[in-house]
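Hi C.,

You asked whether I'd gotten around to modeling the 361-residue construct. I have! Everything is below, sequence then structure, no commentary in between.
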Amino acid sequence: SAAVKFDPASVDLEAFLKDLLALGEELRASLGEDDLAHLKKIERWGRTATAVGAMTAWVAPIPLSAVALSLGRSTRWLLMHHVGHRGYDRVPHTPKRLTSPVFARGARRFIDWLDWMEPEAWKYEHNVLHHSYTGEDADPDLVERNTGWIRQQPKPLRYVLLGVLAATWRASYYAQNTTRALRQRDQKLRPDEKQLPELLQLVLENWAPYFLVELVLFPGLYLPLGPWAAFSAACNSWAAEVLTNLHTFTVVGPNHSGDDLFRFTDAPKSKAERYFRQVVGSVNFRTGGDLNDWLHLFLNYQIEHHLWPDAPMRSYQWLQPRVKALCEKHGVPYVQQSVWKRLGKLTDIFVGNSRMQVMAR
């Protein structure tokens, strides 16, 4: 692959940074009401999907309901990702409910983003740790390191474990990882404060709210229509849960994994190197068009997102060709492939068929 032959020393990092910072200034100057209108449109698409799923859930266990409910849940993840990154805090006239200090905070968790993990824990693990240490040993989401124990299993079992993880990962991986990260932070900040046992905290603050609302209360709402209606709603909600896991795993898991991407053995020595690493440690999928980007949950702009985590979704569509051109100008690898090819790359790393490139001094 191109990354194997690439010599990082051939890049003028300071010149690359200068061009990126200039592009960032253009980005900030371009923020406007179109960004807010775009956010609300994507929000409407998600709400419409949820409504379609809810209105058809009682009929029978049917794909239409399960897929629609799943798209609604995945869209709430999408909104949390970009709003939680402060993507709309500086956009003019953004209502408070769509800003990071309010969205999914407190009781609004049940309105904005109810998932298997507690929002504040996810924001710390993802926004702070993952984005601060992307591809380093301190990155809590470094796939190759986190799956080392799986590669010690018999090879057929590795593929089975990959399937199980993909179908359950929000609860089985992300909830635990985010809870542990937040506990470690709180222990450092408030060492004298007593914490719940980790498993109890995981159950009470992470799993229980989502399980009770989406998989117990939601089907129970259909009981007045009869046992079949409630049973159908339960089947559709559970099917939607599996689909949401598969969907989010497919567009999240491959973002920083593949034999043509880099991981790093140390911290960057400069701002320029940090920006450079965000590019060579990330991958884009097919980009362009709101429908395509919505189905990718706007995670198909991973390179641009890691350069400007606090940019609105619409801005990534504007940034992508410009960042790609800058990478070509400076000789920086810019990896972009279909999500299906990248899922194959992730699988190869996961089961041990290939390894990440390692950048070390």
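If it helps when you're writing up: The longest helix spans residues 155-189.

Thanks,
B.
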